């Protein structure tokens, strides 16, 4: 396997010490293309590009590594002292005028820096709560505006409670739960610590797509009986996509198309070929299997069931779906289990064009 792929800019830079032959330039371009495809998960296409590049120039990998290092250590262009002095002389008078105008219009230090400084914390908390309900992804952005909002966003239980009530109201739980409280979620279990509740109680995310990139090797594409060793093995790459909806439905797709060709049009209304609409549900919060996610779909002859586990990915909460089981039932009730040998976990990918779940679907969220 070639060295680790490094994302390169579209423009190819020439090495400064000696010109690169035309064949080496073509090989370097093919190697960069292969590195880009490898970073997107298309290992089969990447290997083909690497092979073509090595046929043109066996030392193409060394050229690629050398070019990457030069791009990493290349210093930024500096302005000479003579040029800097001439620029200061040319623009110095205008710059001084701008500074004088800024000083004239600058507010007094005793005045409030902006209008929201005039409001008490209870009103600002209400603003934070509305931001969480209307656009949860803006919660972090709001905390970065000033120190006051940072304290209100992450050092107060109100935003965590608002987000917990918001996100868990759209979750669908197993139709056969064990005996539990009427509200499904036992809030007394976390004793009002909604921060810990959001970390421990799994939930499904809606503003994006869960993507699984599957790569595996199989026998090459040589004709039957052929003694050719050109392609002894073949790298197979395909993608699994899952998009969840608050109404309990899930859009499922298995294809060889890369994400940038699928994600923007991955909706139930688009009716993508080979996609299927499924039902999803989580394990009951009071059960030991609360982190299990079940996806079911039905055809004329079979009922398919896929079970996954919601897990963290580093610091990203509930960001990954790991395979647990995949099986089906026929019309006679006979079960058939499917192999998961080549399957890979799903990772959540945020899509900004997907709208957040509307609070109008849950009247309890509206004040």
UniProtKB/TrEMBL annotation:
Xref: InterPro entries: Hrt3/FBXO9_C, TPR_rpt
The TPR repeat ranges on this chain: 27-60
F-box protein Hrt3/FBXO9 C-terminal domain sequence ranges: 188-271
One matching Pfam family: FBO_C
A GO cellular-component term linked to this record: SCF ubiquitin ligase complex
Composition bias type Basic and acidic residues, residue spans: 81-108
Any one biological process term the GO annotation gives: SCF-dependent proteasomal ubiquitin-dependent protein catabolic process
Keywords from the named record: TPR repeat, Ubl conjugation pathway
PANTHER family reported for this sequence: F-BOX ONLY PROTEIN 48 (PTHR12874:SF9), F-BOX ONLY PROTEIN 48-RELATED (PTHR12874)
Protein name as catalogued: F-box protein Hrt3/FBXO9 C-terminal domain-containing protein
